[in-house]
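Fold it.
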Amino acid sequence: MGNLEPTLDWQDPERVVSFDDEPLVLVDEQDREIGFLDKASAHLGSGILHRAFSLFVFNPGGELLLQQRAAGKRLWPGYWSNTCCSHPRRGETLDQAIHRRLDEELGLQCPLQFLFKFQYQAQFDADGAEHELCWVYAGVSSDAPKVNANEIAALRYIAPAALDAEMAAQPERFTPWFMIEWQRIRREHPQVLASAGG
């Protein structure tokens, strides 16, 4: 469907929802909580393992909603990624966190199904990286997304086959976690695409 015209007329289109000092949940490799650390510090150097989530929201026609990360992002600015990614905060359940963030970034609310979790480390530059134990969810929404401009530069829907081709031809345009997650969804969770009409 190509790029969507950003719709900004909701709540405050430039409200700040990401903070360098927000406390993230540090975990061990078994996803056991071992402490807390501010977001900026958790992403320094090669990163410190922390809990995160990635959301994949499809329209009823089976197309995936992609976001282009805002230019002001510290890590992977301007890269295309899955619908929404973030971290649960201290004292917040994952269920609370995923629905909060989907609303904060895109003004969307929809049921989200847990698919899998995995650990990865990806180095952006000498000073910053992602090192996450990431929970991955999928859902379907027919609502029009509304952009938080502090988080998102652009949106577009894309069919699964077209996304496969684009990732193969231009992998440098996409965030590393998105590519890992998408390949696993394609390989292990075909029901997600079927339920979205794809």
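The first strand starts at residue 2 and ends at 4.
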